[in-house]
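hey all, quick one before standup. I had two proteins in the batch that finished overnight and I want to keep them in one place so we stop losing track of which output belongs to which input. First protein below, input sequence then structure tokens straight from the run.
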Amino acid sequence: MAKRSTPKKQQANSQTSRRFKSFQNRARKRLANTAKISTCPQCKESKLSHTACQGCGYYKGRKALDMEKQIDKITKVKA
């Protein structure tokens, strides 16, 4: 791997943020349509495709997540 030379002068913060913002915008355009949203056949809520429903816990017609256990985790308070 080739070694990189040391910068001669410090780069301005505006230049750094401009470069980062352009990278962000390109990534946003590329990823804009990748998240496919579908409806759950059990509870008719919207969910991400190929994932278990966060509302009812079903995936492909069978129970994947135990929602009662999830709720118990959230409501328990550590003493």
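OK second protein, same deal, sequence then tokens:
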Amino acid sequence: MPASKGDVPMYLRRLRDLREDHDYKQEYVASILKITRQQYQLYESGKRSLPIDKLIDICNLYSVSADYVLELKNEL
């Protein structure tokens, strides 16, 4: 089970870290996911669950595995 702090899964931090490591703005990631920036912000903040199809798109965008994003593995 991924580490969590309170009710917020720690993988949400990984989403933000990946975006910031690539110098992407939320607007850019949202455009790739074909959603609004506000919708993406809800995913990144944990206020909405990330659908599996968007997780796949994020993995493709950053060339990482879902295991990495979900913190099931620490290797890319």
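Flagging for whoever picks this up: Residues 22-76 form a domain with the 434 Repressor (Amino-terminal Domain) fold (CATH 1.10.260.40). Residues 1-5 have pLDDT under 50 and may be disordered.
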